[in-house]
Design brief:
The protein has 190 residues and is an alpha+beta fold. The chain contains seven helices and four strands, in the order ααβααβαβαβα. α2 packs across α5. 27% of the residues are buried. The model has no long low-confidence stretch (mean pLDDT 98). The structure holds flavin mononucleotide.
């Protein structure tokens, strides 16, 4: 059971990255509600550098995304309804100068997507374990964009159906103490 050290809404503690997907399909409306939440994230200059490429299970595009995953991730994403590639546009649109915060802004959008998913009892599980270069080449993503991550999205399923090594990871993860991530006045981190 996750415990907060300071009072927060339990919603934040309840969001977890489950790997237990059911085969149940998401409606277009459910999926696009998640992109809608992401769309309203804040960004430097309101530049909105986030881009989402999605692929539905059962389509050639899903196979392309899926084939780029490392074997561990293939085991639990095979029942996901949708795989989403999250990409950021590197430069500002108003002056074409590099945006220092484009990945930060895109991270905010991903979190909005993940929290909206939690509100709707949908799993949104971030993924770094895939071949970035292969996906970049396959989708012909220009160098003016950077791939950030993938997300596996779908309805929650039965944990018992997961292989035992993956099932054991379904326990909610813990966090570093606040003292390890917050410092007053000085940079005190190693
Ligand atoms: C950007 C990102 C990439 C991740 N990559 C993977 C991954 O490749 N495989 C995986 O099983 N989990 C992956 N995760 C899930 C993390 O391990 C998980 O978020 C972390 O352990 C915290 O657990 P929680 O999300 O349940 O709170 C990723 C999460 C994020 C945000």
């Amino acid at each position: 059971m996750r415990q907060a050290t300071y009072p927060i809404d339990s919603f934040f503690l309840e969001r977890v990255s489950s790997r237990a997907f059911s085969e149940e399909r998401l409606s277009n409306e459910e999926l696009f509600s998640l992109f809608e939440a992401a769309r309203w994230a804040p960004s430097s200059y309101n530049n909105q550098p986030w881009r989402f490429v999605f692929a539905k299970r059962g389509t050639p595009a899903f196979d392309t995304f899926f084939n780029a995953l490392v074997d561990f991730n293939k085991q639990w994403t095979k029942n996901a309804d949708t795989l989403v590639l999250i990409v950021t546009k590197n430069n500002f649109e108003h002056n074409n100068e590099p945006s220092m915060t484009a990945p930060f802004d895109t991270g905010a959008a991903w979190m909005s997507l993940a929290l909206e998913a939690r509100l709707k009892n949908i799993i949104a599980h971030g993924i770094q374990g895939f071949d970035y270069a292969a996906i970049k080449a396959k989708l012909q993503i220009p160098d003016t964009f950077s791939i950030q991550a993938m997300v596996a999205i779908g309805k929650p399923g039965n944990i018992e159906n997961l292989p035992s090594d993956i099932r054991s990871k379904e326990t909610p993860s813990e966090r570093k103490p606040l003292s390890a991530i917050v410092s007053e006045a000085v940079f005190s981190f190693t």
